[in-house]
Design goal:
37% of the residues lie in helices and 20% in strands. By secondary structure, it is an alpha/beta fold. Among the domains are: 191 residues, Rossmann fold (3-Layer(aba) Sandwich); 132 residues, GMP Synthetase, Chain A, domain 3.
Length: 594
């Protein structure tokens, strides 16, 4: 059972560091990792620096309602500046690192940003290049000391006692209904919308999730999903409220090393990163030979058939043996201490949840939106609170209902204040009675578990009048180690086709195993043997699909899709409209009359 906690002592995000200081002060409240070095900040230091940031911003002339932006990888400074802003009523408008300059310009101008905090030289140059196109932008601060940049700690140089006093008065005057942040969506279609959240919106989510949290103040969390995304940001506030030490991974590329360093008890991920971990486990296992390879394959089959309840004694005996021989090595690769991991941001393949849960790492999928701050539902640690394939049960302070067309509607204290500068867009999603249209299609089963089947906008109708839900199909195809990403096409068309981005690292290994000389990505996707292999993969995965859903043609894509290049969101979901526009010519080729 999750530990009981007194959650009456905070109503604003800015209360959380002091709440931690009073109830369970930590020596490692926030930790930055750099190679083998770790820089630890105690809870006391955390509170002290946040207060200095508030006083420094106040001394620099920033006041309640001003908009400031943070563009940085995860690091303790992110928290210091975030909460320092909020203590004096300044609104944090965070942005994803490595957006295009045009995207930064849009966000800055739409929200009238007055100052930006960046972490490194590249980001500094990106922002510096558009200063003249953003009339409201007055200052750029840097977390690292850069030539020509103004380091963030210069804010502390001219603080007076009066600044400290006035900043404290401002903090005392912050109300739970005040605007705390504007989070620009990384949606898969259209321009980003600025989601406005009050302290109450996010704190209500922290409160609801706190009683479900299976870790306590003696535990550690590893954080690597971007803090500008509301999912990881809310979890960060949640960890602070629970006294859980937060260790920030250096980058996505170092997660494996950081896992072994930190030995975390909990972390949050998106499905694509979990797929990468799974693929690495499978690749390592299949490099074995003889008895070891047989044991690995047997254990993997066992894990794929894992059930939370109802398995007989024979299965349990086999599972216990597999756990001792195989699964404990998988856990060791994840640090060896994981109590659970949380998956969100996109749909999780149920197979992955089974495999990791079977290996002793309960994988709890949740569901929510930027507009819902963000969690609406989540699977629990208790067996009766979990179900593979579902996104769990709805939070106790949230209501969910299914509309006549299958769309999920939600209501609760976590629902956004609205879209900044877009009242018409707000009206499109908000219904009478405070119900938010999520844009997702789903169902509730008889036990109260919520299932999300697809995005409403992702559903398409073929020219034959048949609807196709692409997401479940794409998830199944992505189980192939040779497929990195896949996007189905078919709106108004006579058949379903697909754009497939191969996993080139795995494809290169496959080529070596099959005596195919590797040249370039562009040439390899034209290779007859490679094409034939993908034809077999498509044929195999088409087998269980209906005639309408089957992929009739496909094109292999040599370019790597990333958030930086614009085809993926920060949570690694395909931006369907962007991809369809960029590959229009190849799509039309598939539908050309032969």
């Amino acid at each position: 059972m999750a530990p009981e906690r007194n959650i009456r002592d905070f109503s604003r995000l800015i209360d959380l560091p002091r709440y931690q200081l009073e109830h369970f002060p930590q020596d490692d409240a926030l930790v930055a990792i750099s190679g083998e070095e770790m820089t630890k900040y105690s809870t006391e230091k955390f509170v002290e620096v946040v207060d200095r940031v508030s006083a420094g911003l106040w001394a620099a002339g920033y006041r309640k309602g001003d908009k400031l932006c943070i563009i940085s990888e995860n690091r303790p400074e992110w928290n210091f500046v975030d909460l320092g802003m909020q203590q004096i009523g300044v609104v944090n408008v965070p942005a994803f690192p490595r957006l295009s300059r045009e995207e930064y310009k849009y966000i800055f101008n739409d929200s009238e940003i007055k100052a930006v905090f960046v972490s490194d030289q590249e980001l500094y140059e990106d922002v510096q290049s558009i200063v003249n196109e953003v009339p409201s932008l007055e200052e750029i601060y840097t977390f690292e000391r850069l030539e020509g940049g103004k380091c963030w700690d210069t804010l502390f140089e001219n603080i007076t006692d009066e600044d400290r006093r006035e900043a404290e008065e401002a903090r005392n005057g912050i109300e739970e209904d005040d605007l705390a942040t504007i989070v620009y969506t990384s949606g898969t279609t259209g321009k980003p919308k600025g989601v406005m959240h009050s302290h109450k919106n996010i704190i209500s989510n922290v409160r609801a999730c706190l009683s479900l949290l299976p870790v306590k103040e003696q535990h550690r969390a590893l954080s690597f999903l971007p803090l500008n995304h509301v999912f990881e940001r809310m979890l960060s506030y949640l960890y602070i409220s629970a006294g859980i030490a937060i260790y920030y991974a250096e980058s996505v590329d170092t997660i494996g090393d950081n896992m072994r360093q930190v030995k975390p008890h909990i972390f949050a991920t998106v499905p694509r990163l979990l797929e990468k971990v799974y693929e690495k486990i499978v690749k390592t296992g299949r490099r074995q030979s003889g008895l070891r390879r047989w044991l690995f394959n047997w254990s993997l089959r066992l894990a794929k058939n894992y059930e939370l309840r109802g398995k007989g004694l024979w299965y349990k005996l086999q599972h216990a043996l597999a756990d001792r021989l195989i699964y404990d090595k998988w856990r060791a690769a994840l640090g060896g201490n994981l109590i659970c991991l949380i998956s969100g941001g996109a749909a999780l393949n149920p197979m992955l949840a089974r495999v990791f849960t079977a290996a002793g790492v309960p994988t709890l999928e949740g569901y929510g939106l930027t507009e819902t701050a963000p969690v609406l539902s989540v699977n629990r640690m208790e067996l009766e609170g979990r179900k593979f394939g579902s996104v769990g049960k709805v939070l106790e302070n949230v209501e969910v209902k299914i509309d006549d067309d299958g769309e999920i509607l939600a209501r609760g204290p976590n629902i956004m204040l609205g879209y900044y500068n877009m009242p018409d867009k707000t009206d499109e999603v908000m219904e009478e009675g405070g119900w938010l249209r999520t844009g997702d299609i789903g169902k509730l089963d008889e036990e109260g578990f919520l299932f999300v089947t697809d995005r409403k906008k992702s559903l398409f109708k073929t020219s034959g009048g048949k609807y196709v839900a692409p997401q479940p199909i794409e998830n199944k195809f992505s189980e192939s180690p040779l497929i990195e990403n896949i996007v189905l096409i078919g709106e108004g068309r006579k058949m379903v086709t697909a754009l497939i981005q191969p996993d080139f690292e795995n494809l290169k290994e496959w080529c070596e195993e099959n005596d195919i000389e590797w040249t370039s990505k562009e040439e390899m996707i034209q290779n007859d043997k490679v094409r034939k292999r993908f034809e077999v993969i498509v044929e195999e995965h088409n087998e269980p699909l209906s005639h309408t859903e089957k992929i009739k043609k496909f094109r292999l894509i040599p370019e790597k899709w990333t958030p930086e290049s614009g085809e993926l969101t920060p949570t690694l979901k395909p931006k369907r409209e962007v991809i369809r526009e960029r590959y229009e010519e190849r799509i039309e080729e598939m539908y050309a009359v032969e």
